[in-house]
Structure prediction request, 150 residues.
Amino acid sequence: MDLILWRHAETEDGLPDQSRKLTAKGEKQADLMAAWLRERLPKETRIIASPAKRSQQTALALGAKFETLKEIAVGASVPALLAAAGWPDAKGAVLVVGHQPTLGQVAALLLGGEEAAWSIRKGSVWWLSSRVRQDETQVVLRAVMAPDML
Prediction:
């Protein structure tokens, strides 16, 4: 399984938190990363997004169908996000458009063995894969990409 973590792009400040929109810079970040992803995502990738406005806008930049799941909303737990994505047993790839600190905690758990306060920059993607070698499940970091690198 591939698990692709995509943090929403840069947003406006303000309240209510769920309604914060992308800034002009955030829209550009989302567009750049969406173009990068479109060239690389497997055809049948399942895309799930937080219901927060900024995550919805980020996911829309991809121009593909996606599911909105409250299980990956702001403040989601690591187990809830992993369950929603079907990690590590889902077939194919799952792209999660979500939030800090949950995305960083997921990356830390899968790569380092325990939840930690890892930071994923706004608009960035972390691409992880699970594989089985000698009856042991391993996690492989396939890519980390930030919009300012595109």
In short: The two ends are 25 Å apart (CA to CA). The mean pLDDT is 96.
